[in-house]
């Protein structure tokens, strides 16, 4: 791996889409890099890294962490993979970043072949394509999003056990004729009723019953209204 000699180095990482992260490299896995940004341990899929540079000046004065990250490799970095981390994060409160400008806060409840289920106090049950996950930050123990207490969080998130299919497209196909929001409503065509799914193409009808056809490869998040 090209990054294998970067442990404890301060780096600047540019992600696809333009987001920039700054932190000390903690650990490297087969498809994942873990950095400490001075406050949080950030788990970043390597597929989303556009460039990585050493930050010799360390202008943000990032120090090495005094505690261990929530998830580390047990034996070697071979078990530090994105799927492994998502599975180990089930039931924990996490922050994730998927779309261009919004972080999501909540709990991962299920991990399937190419997507995972995320329960949010704001958006409720969300189906998220794993390939579009940009980073994950575990909360510290007993910390809840939005300043909520545990009881408030459980009440607002209303965690369900939906019937799940292993494949993302097949799971979305179960939502035919349902009102949904795609990609957190980034575009007006991402809000409406799923009319049909044919291969990689999803047909969405908007409020005026006009259809838009979207490529499912670019659908990152789906949640019902």
Characteristic terms for this protein:
225 residues, mainly beta, SH3 type barrels, 3 domains, 10-stranded antiparallel β-sheet, 3 helices, 39% strand
Report on this structure.
- The chain is mostly beta strands and 225 residues long.
- The chain has three domains: 10-71, SH3 type barrels, CATH 2.30.30; 82-157, SH3 type barrels, CATH 2.30.30.100; 168-224, SH3 type barrels (Roll), CATH 2.30.30.
- The chain is built from three helices and 15 strands.
- It has helices at 82-88, 150-157, 168-173, and strands at 10-15, 20-28, 32-36, 41-45, 49-54, 93-97, 103-111, 115-120, 124-129, 135-138, 179-182, 191-198, 201-205, 211-215, 221-224.
- The strands form two sheets. A ten-stranded antiparallel beta sheet has the order 10-6-7-8-9-15-11-12-13-14. The chain has a five-stranded antiparallel beta sheet with strand order 4-3-2-1-5, with no helix packed on it.
- The radius of gyration is 19 Å and the shape is globular.
- The relative contact order is 0.12.
């Amino acid at each position: 791996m090209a990054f294998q000699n970067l442990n404890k180095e301060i780096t600047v990482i540019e992600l696809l889409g333009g987001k920039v992260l700054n932190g000390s490299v903690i650990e490297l896995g087969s498809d994942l890099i873990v950095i400490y940004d001075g406050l949080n341990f950030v788990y970043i899929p390597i597929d989303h890294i556009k460039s990585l540079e050493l930050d010799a000046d360390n202008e943000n004065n990032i120090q090495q962490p005094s505690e261990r990250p929530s998830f580390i490799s047990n034996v070697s970095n071979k078990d530090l993979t994105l799927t492994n981390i998502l599975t180990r994060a089930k039931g924990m409160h996490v922050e994730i970043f998927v779309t261009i400008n919004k972080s999501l806060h909540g709990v991962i409840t299920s991990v399937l072949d190419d997507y995972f289920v995320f329960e949010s106090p704001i958006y409720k049950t969300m189906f998220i394509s794993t390939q579009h996950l940009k980073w994950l930050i575990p909360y510290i123990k007993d910390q809840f999003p939005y300043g909520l207490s545990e009881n408030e969080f459980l009440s607002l998130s209303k965690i369900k056990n939906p019937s799940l299919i292993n494949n993302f497209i097949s799971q979305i196909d179960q939502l035919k004729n349902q009102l949904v929001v795609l990609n957190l409503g980034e575009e007006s065509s991402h809000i409406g009723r799923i009319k049909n799914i044919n291969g990689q193409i999803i047909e969405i009808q908007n409020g005026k019953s006009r259809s838009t056809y979207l490529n499912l490869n670019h659908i990152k998040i789906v949640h019902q209204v």
